[in-house]
Design a protein that fits this description.
Keywords: Signal. Pfam families: Ig_3, V-set. InterPro entries: Ig-like_dom, Ig-like_dom_sf, Ig-like_fold, Ig_sub, Ig_sub2, Ig_V-set, Zig-8. Helix content is 25%, strand content 33%. The chain has 324 residues and is of the alpha+beta class. Among the domains are: 101 residues, Immunoglobulin-like, CATH 2.60.40.10; 100 residues, Immunoglobulins (Immunoglobulin-like), CATH 2.60.40.10. A 6-stranded mixed β-sheet has the order 2-10-9-4-5-6, with no helix packed on it. The radius of gyration is 43 Å and the shape is elongated.
């Protein structure tokens, strides 16, 4: 009694093979029944339908070569694994870095809800999707079929990080009453990048609520730009602002709105504290000439002969006797 389930399972797997063989045998028997004495075996076999040999082979990959997928941080990765003749076997996705089981069939085993397995129209393609891709998701992923031993296809995922810049810079000085305009630009983030300007915990999201003009445009590079504009800046506009997006970390900007005399004094101070390149060149030449003169003076002093005091100079007397 214990062996009955095993027998049922073993018979259920080759069912397509048995059906194909029975169909071919039935057609062959029918051809023989209709044949006369002049009919040869070649004629009988030629009229029989072909056997579907695809049911005899096990699972295999449609494309066994390793593939590399590229996606921008914050986007959605879609990695394909095509399997033919799957029969009753299952397809699993495993992360290569830590050999962690992510999905089996359409069931997700990881607690990270960004990972989803899709089998469109119950066909031969098994797709692993990763939503809101992070830099840490880069690496190898294994598509495994539950044969004995399992067959495995390796795919690689590379993640490109988007780049955010702020124009005219991270610190902006503007005269009170003049136009304030800051551009946040994100390159490499798939649209919609969902850019936003914030000040403190408040989002600067519409001209009506904050008296700001917002202009948003999506390019095909892909590039996204969000402009923070104020037609007539006042001292209340001074402060710290942040540009956030779905692909990048917040980038901070400090705005200084100054009165006319304050801005002029600051510009004069910066000009007086900074030297023109030509002035630096003159100072450098003067320093070189001074060092050269000092070096030559020291060399002449070292080369001048030393004179002994007159009291220390002795000359031999011509009348002094000499003893031998």
């Amino acid at each position: 009694m214990d062996t009955a389930p095993d027998v049922v399972m073993s018979l259920s797997r080759p069912a397509p093979l048995l059906l194909s063989a029975l169909a071919a045998l039935t057609a062959l028997t029918s051809s023989i029944a209709r044949a006369d004495e002049s009919t040869t075996w070649e004629d009988i076999l030629r009229g029989a339908p072909p056997i579907q040999y695809s049911t005899l082979s096990g699972p295999s990959f449609l494309n066994a070569s390793a593939r590399t997928y590229e996606v921008v941080s914050g986007g959605t990765a879609k990695m394909h694994c095509g399997v033919r003749n799957l029969h009753n076997y299952t397809v699993s996705w495993v992360r290569g870095s830590d050999i962690r089981l992510l999905t089996t069939g359409s069931i997700t085993y990881t607690s990270d809800s960004r990972f989803v397995a899709v089998n469109p129209s119950k066909g031969e393609q098994w797709i692993l999707k990763i939503h809101y891709v992070r830099k840490s998701d880069a690496g190898s992923y294994l598509c495994q079929v539950s044969t004995t031993p399992p067959i495995t296809l390796t795919v690689n995922l590379t993640v490109q990080e988007a780049v955010a810049t702020v124009l005219p810079g991270r610190e902006v000085f503007v005269k009170s009453g003049s136009r304030l305009e800051i551009v946040c630009q994100v390159e490499g983030c798939p649209p919609p990048a969902l850019l936003a300007w914030t000040r403190g915990r408040q989002t600067v999201n519409s001209p009506e609520s904050n008296n700001y003009d917002l202009v948003k445009s999506n390019g095909t590079i892909p590039m996204s730009r969000l402009i923070l504009a104020r037609p007539h800046a006042t001292s209340s506009d001074s402060g710290n602002y942040s540009c956030t997006s779905t692909c990048t970390r917040p980038i901070n900007v400090t705005v200084h709105v100054l009165r006319g005399e304050e801005l002029a004094a600051m510009q004069h101070h910066n000009t007086s504290c900074s030297l023109h390149p030509s002035s630096l060149l003159v100072l450098l030449i003067q320093a070189v000439l001074l060092l050269d003169a000092h070096y030559n003076l020291g060399r002449r002093h070292r080369e001048q002969p030393r004179l002994l005091p007159r009291a220390m100079v002795t000359t031999p007397s011509p009348h002094r006797p000499t003893f031998t």
